[in-house]
Amino acid sequence: MIRFTVNRDFTTRTHCSRDWFSFKSLRNRYHSLILSSKKQYYSQLVSSSSANPRRLRQTVNNLLHRKSYSLLPTFTSASSLADSFASFFTDKISKFRFSLLNNSALVSSHSHSPPALPPDYSTFKLVTESEISKILSSCLNKQSDSDPIPTWLLKECSFVLILCYR
């Protein structure tokens, strides 16, 4: 085993450039072996989980040091989650309403019309079966990749939706 003392001016210790080149060669070989071992390890890790997409995604996220986070807030029960969503959207509507009032106050200072209050979204009117049918039939047969069901199929099955609404 060759033991080297790493120094900025390596050649001054041994006074031999051959030792310096030998050191560089061994250092490069060491790094090369480390890299190839890592490559082999990670390749084996990815290939062993390639049959299971969820496990593969977790493996890749771990290798890339990605942290997983929950898209939903923490909750103890379904009703507390529903309450959390309700308060979020109520706050959102309140903030939106407040910003509309502020904007309408700015606009009204330049015009003589009184500011209109934004609609109150605290209560909703139930829709009728004919309204559901009318809305579905008026939809164009266009869709996006993110749509869970094609529009034409939704229109074809609209009678089922209306029956379920009853």
List its salient traits.
63% helix, mainly alpha, 0% strand, 166 residues
Descriptive report:
With 166 residues, the protein is an all-alpha fold. The protein folds into three domains: 54 residues; 37 residues, no CATH class; 42 residues, no CATH class. The chain is 63% helix and 0% strand. The longest helix is centred in the middle third of the chain and has 33 residues. The chain is elongated.
Number of strands: 0
Number of helices: 7
The domain count comes to 3
Overall mean pLDDT score? 80
Taken from the alpha-carbon principal axes, the silhouette is elongated
Structural class of the helices, strands and pairings?
Answer: mainly alpha
- How much helical structure, as a percent, in the residues? 55-70%
What sequence of helices (H) and strands (E) makes up the elements?
A: HHHHHHH
Major sheet, described briefly?
Answer: none
Write down the Rg: 33 Å
Beta-strand content bin? under 5%
Distance between the termini: 85 Å
Query: Which runs of at least 5 residues are low in confidence (pLDDT < 50)?
Result: none
TL;DR?
This protein has 166 residues and is mainly α. The protein is built from seven helices and no strands.
Q: How is this fold's topology laid out?
A:
Elements: H1 10-14, H2 17-48, H3 53-63, H4 78-110, H5 129-138, H6 151-156, H7 158-165
Helix pairs in contact: 2-3, 5-7
